[in-house]
């Protein structure tokens, strides 16, 4: 899909809570989102998973192979169920990865940083935001904190936050390891 067509659909859906299906170059499965903000490089979405909102994702527009607006039974169920009634868009400036990470660091979220082409997955805390990278402190699947790492913005495909996985880790990890 041409970039101009992707941007047209993102523009149409942004802030209207139109339900969108995203197909990414790096993922065989479609993702279903509500577009909250976008620009020519990044897109901020509320993620829907089986009739619940499950956090937020920032993705690169260039990785979107196809995006389409949906009007189906899922849309009707989400509307009737009031799924979006209490949705509050996070105050994240997606002008660039740098501005996005600066905003996320202020909120002290546990975030998931990924490069889905390479299978790179880190969950943890933003320690410092630099001009072209983020200093990140992550933990492994057993909850063991790892040494800080520098992640160049050019290596990031998606950032997720406010989802069940990250929220549960944040809720319990500090209590267990402190």
Q: Give me the oligomer status.
A: single chain
- What is the end-to-end distance? 49 Å
Count the E strands: 10
Low-pLDDT windows of residues: none
What is the string of SSEs from the N terminus onward?
A: HEEEEEHHEEEEEH
Indicate the mean pLDDT.
92
Largest sheet: 10 strands, antiparallel
Gross morphology is: globular
Strand order of the largest sheet: 5-1-2-3-4-10-6-7-8-9
**DSSP helix count?**
4
Beta-strand content estimate: 35-45%
Taking Cα atoms only, what radius of gyration do you get, to the nearest Å? 16 Å
Helical proportion?
10-25%
Q: Helix- and strand-based class? A: alpha+beta
What this model shows, in words?
- The protein is an alpha+beta fold and 178 residues long.
- 25% of the residues lie in helices and 38% in strands.
- The protein contains 4 helices and 10 strands; from the N terminus they run αβββββααβββββα.
- It has a 10-stranded antiparallel sheet with strand order 5-1-2-3-4-10-6-7-8-9.
- The protein is globular.
- The mean pLDDT is 92.
What is the structure about, briefly put?
Helices cover 25% and strands 38% of the residues. The protein is an alpha+beta fold and 178 residues long.
